[in-house]
Design a protein that fits this description.
Blueprint: H1 2-19, H2 23-58, H3 71-81, H4 87-126, H5 134-150, H6 155-159, H7 164-177, E1 186-191, H8 196-208, E2 214-218, H9 221-229, E3 234-235, E4 246-247, E5 261-262, H10 265-284, E6 289-292, E7 296-298, H11 303-308, H12 310-314, E8 317-321, H13 326-332, E9 340-347, H14 351-366, H15 374-382, H16 394-397, E10 412-415, E11 421-424, E12 430-431, H17 433-438, H18 441-445, E13 451-453, H19 460-470, H20 479-483, E14 487-490, H21 503-527, E15 530-531, H22 573-578, H23 596-599, E16 602-605, H24 614-621, E17 629-632, H25 645-658, E18 663-668, E19 674-679, H26 692-697, E20 711-713
Parallel strand pairs: 1-2, 1-6, 2-3, 4-5, 8-11, 12-13, 14-15, 14-17, 16-17
Antiparallel strand pairs: 6-9, 7-13, 8-9, 10-11, 18-19, 19-20
């Protein structure tokens, strides 16, 4: 029944529609009129809102905020189509949509400007370049830089206004970098936590030379803090952030011998990428930059040399080398087959330099090789493609006379990958650790270097510091280091029969010297004095490669003996520190920083008999407190033992730690491919050798303090 009624009603409606064909049109027209009314009403509200917006902006009573949520536009439009049931809600949504549209227009305009800039750059790249002189290139760079500076700050600065931390970092960067002088070379370095002392020493050398155009890249907040505390101009922001631990190349920091270090390859690669990014920023601002690792020491101002050297103006960049031979450098006009060392780099702000730095940075950020470091990639990139070759314009630039010795100070030039003009900094002026500390080439040639880089060394950061101290290049010790304390040292020279060249004599001489060190540390404990370590001559070089049978690194110009050999060649300096042993370097009494009161209070003393005990030493020398420095005529036979056996054992324990050191002196051969002599052994403990009378009665030389002088491994 219900179904019948429904069918009847439907049939009646259909019949009515057929009988009255205009009824559907009338209904549609009515709906259209209502829709037009709603549309007109919405348009009226939008116009009223726009009028109110313009009025308020004119009166500066309202500032539109940058709303970046584009969903608001969709919500506002949807609310308008619904019929404006809530007039106030619609107006708020419409205002939000309008602000988004304004933001979109700004973004669109900015993107158009960026696209136009990219098109201009592409046109410049595609157009054939005219060969310009250095002066023309320099003028063009200045013009482009002025245009960039006139156009405003970096885009990041305007985009980061809503982020106070980034804005603060940008402000610091602009403050320090923009204050640099473009007419002079910028001296640059970089540092992270763990190397602050070296950064401070590097900066102290620049200030000693009155170099004010200085900038340091601070790769973490701790380094920024140290820079602020010491008034060092620095660049530091979120884009230059090192995120790994202390890199293992330097070992534990000088201020924390227990700090953990990292061997992760990504740590080294990140440091290199940050360095490249830092240098690229300076290049983009048009600076000429001389950047060096903070474990360098600048002894002379090189700016005049760069200003008067035509090749320095010609190159895109110049780099130091690990070359050991100035003779080979002169012969082939540059050590092109040796590794370039990125520890010292001179950069001109050319397009090729910028391109190389960008390639270097990208390669470091994307390498999948765990052990490929920044220097490895640097050398690889330079030799890609056609490799190193003589530059086409060398004869036009190289107008120096070919006089004897004249080439030694030239900047040799070659073309590298992508036709980058590469200079090789002369090794006699920009010296490596081996050329300066071991061969001491500057003394043989009577040349005064500009800088030394503490490479080719052992004992990590402490070995670097010790070498700089020995050559009076460590400038940041507290004044107490040079003013306070009483001291003990010796004037004894090693037996003459040990001074002939060879590995056997070298290891015997090292054993004699280490016995002298042990006795000086005993005197220091007995008399409450600080030992001044005596000079040591190396009869064989120390190297991680093969040095035997000739006892020097292949390719080195100057051969043993090496006088005033670094302490890291015969001891492990971190172990001396772990044992709690205090000491001074051999040059302490000639250092200009050392107090004259110490230098003028020196007395040479001799012992009443050989191999005395601690009580006998105290009785004879303990009252000489008026003398700041006591010099023992004989040190190798100057000590037997402590009367108190517990003190002997405690001292032996300290020496077991302090004198622990190992070095391999190897040559090709044997079943493993290498045959090595291994030093160094430690003297027998004073708790074992307690028969002082036997030592005095017999011909008891230094060798009897050792069970064996070294080990042999085939």
């Amino acid at each position: 029944k219900k179904s019948t009624m429904t069918t009847t009603t439907t049939t009646t409606n259909l019949h009515h529609q057929r009988a009255n064909p205009h009824s559907k049109a009338l209904s549609s027209n009515s709906y259209s009129r209502r829709r037009k009314f709603v549309f007109c009403f919405v348009l009226f509200l939008a116009c009223a809102g726009l009028f109110e917006l313009r009025f308020l902006e004119k009166e500066k009573k309202w500032t539109p905020s940058p709303v970046n949520n584009r969903v608001a536009l969709h919500l506002g439009a949807g609310a308008g189509a619904a019929g404006a049931a809530d007039d106030g809600a619609f107006r708020r949504r419409d205002d939000a949509a309008r602000r988004v549209q304004d933001t979109d227009h700004e973004d669109y305009a900015r993107n158009n400007n960026n696209r136009d800039a990219r098109r201009r750059r592409r046109r410049r790249v595609s157009e054939p370049k005219k060969e310009l002189s250095y002066e023309e290139e320099e003028q063009l760079r200045k013009q482009r830089m002025e245009e960039r500076m006139a156009g405003g700050k970096d885009v990041r600065e305007s985009n980061d206004k809503s982020q106070p931390n980034h804005q603060e970092h940008e402000k610091l960067r602009v403050e320090h970098v923009d204050s640099l002088n473009k007419s002079s070379i910028v001296f640059a370095a970089f540092a992270s936590a763990g190397f602050h002392e070296f950064m401070l020493n590097w900066y102290a050398h620049t200030q000693k030379l009155n170099i004010g155009n200085v900038i340091v890249a601070a790769f973490d907040a701790e380094t920024e803090k140290v820079c602020k505390e010491n008034n060092i101009p620095y660049l530091g922001d979120e884009e230059l952030r090192y995120t790994h631990g202390v890199v293992a190349t330097g070992g534990q920091p000088l201020h924390d011998q227990n700090a953990k270090v990292t061997m992760v390859g990504k740590a080294f690669q990140q440091i290199g990428a940050l360095k490249a990014s830092f240098l690229l920023r300076l290049m983009q601002k048009g600076f000429r930059v001389l950047v060096s690792d903070c474990d360098t020491a600048w002894m002379r101002d090189p700016r005049e040399w760069f200003a008067t050297n035509e090749m320095a103006k010609y190159v895109d960049m110049a780099v130091s080398t690990d070359c050991l031979s100035y003779k080979n450098e002169e012969k082939v006009r540059g050590c092109w087959h040796d590794q370039f060392n990125t520890g010292i780099l001179f950069l001109n702000p050319t397009e090729k330099t910028k391109g190389f730095l960008k390639d270097w940075q990208v390669a470091l950020e994307t390498t999948t090789h765990k052990f490929e470091h920044d220097q490895d990639i640097f050398n690889r990139l330079l030799r890609e493609g056609a490799g190193l070759r003589p530059p086409q314009r060398l004869d036009e630039i190289d107008v120096e006379n070919r006089k004897e010795g004249a080439e030694r100070h030239e900047l040799h030039v070659a073309l590298a990958s992508k036709d980058l003009k590469l200079g090789a900094l002369p090794l006699t002026l920009f010296t490596s650790g081996h050329v300066f500390f071991i061969q001491q080439t500057h003394l043989h040639l009577n040349v005064e270097p500009f800088v030394v880089h503490t490479t080719y060394q052992f004992s990590q950061a402490r070995g670097k510091r010790q070498r700089l101290r020995e050559h009076q290049l460590w400038l940041i010790d507290a004044q107490e280091y040079h003013d306070e304390g009483n001291f003990i040292t010796t004037s004894e020279k090693p037996p003459q029969e040990l001074l002939s060249i060879g590995i056997e004599n070298h290891l015997k001489l090292a054993s004699w010297y280490r016995l002298v060190l042990r006795n000086l540390f005993a005197y220091a404990e007995i008399l409450n004095r600080i030992p001044i370590l005596p000079e040591f001559s190396c009869l064989c070089d120390r190297y991680w490669g093969n040095v035997l049978p000739q006892c020097y690194i292949p390719g080195a110009d100057i051969h043993p003996p090496y006088n005033k050999c670094p302490m890291d060649h015969v001891t492990n300096l971190p172990n001396l520190e772990r044992a709690g042993l205090n000491f001074r370097e051999y040059s302490f009494l000639t250092n200009e920083q050392t107090s004259d009161k110490i230098k003028q209070s020196v007395e040479t003393v001799s012992l009443s008999r050989q191999f005395p005990t601690d009580e006998e030493i105290r009785d004879q020398l303990g009252r000489k407190t008026d003398k700041r420095v006591l010099v023992l005529e004989t040190a190798s036979k100057s000590f037997c033992t402590f009367k108190d056996e517990s003190k002997s054992k405690a001292f032996d324990s300290k020496m077991q730690t302090g004198l622990e050191a190992e070095s391999h002196f190897c040559k090709h051969g044997g079943s493993t491919g290498r045959i090595c002599e291994i030093g160094f052994t430690k003297p027998k403990g004073v708790s074992q050798n307690r028969d002082c009378d036997r030592m005095r009665s017999e011909d008891f030389d230094f060798e009897k303090f050792y069970d064996k002088l070294w080990e042999h491994k085939g």
